[in-house]
Design brief:
The protein is of the alpha+beta class. It is built from three helices and seven strands; from the N terminus they run βαβββααβββ. A hairpin with a 3-residue loop joins β6 and β7. 27% of the residues are buried.
């Protein structure tokens, strides 16, 4: 299971929304965070979110122990299971 945590603030809502458009991804909440889960990789296209670079690069609050970020650049955020 791949899990990404993003702080639930208005600036990050588009990121969770775009991630949730993938039918393999589920979005939940745990405390003040969006919890984004998938059995495989989670890939979020930055341009689809409309996030500015400062918000994009500061959005990640953490990943689960069995997940790792393999791409986080101006194009996309990719989290994969270890």
């Amino acid at each position: 299971m791949t899990t990404l945590y993003v702080l639930d603030v208005p600036e990050n809502t588009p990121l969770a929304k775009v991630a949730g458009e993938d039918s393999a991804v589920s979005i939940g909440r745990i405390g003040p965070y969006f919890e984004i889960n998938a059995a495989g990789p989670i890939v979020i296209d930055r341009r689809a979110t409309g996030c500015r670079h400062a918000v994009w690069y500061s959005a990640v609050a953490g990943v689960a122990r069995d997940s790792r970020i393999t791409q986080h650049d101006k194009d996309a955020l990719r989290v994969e299971p270890v």
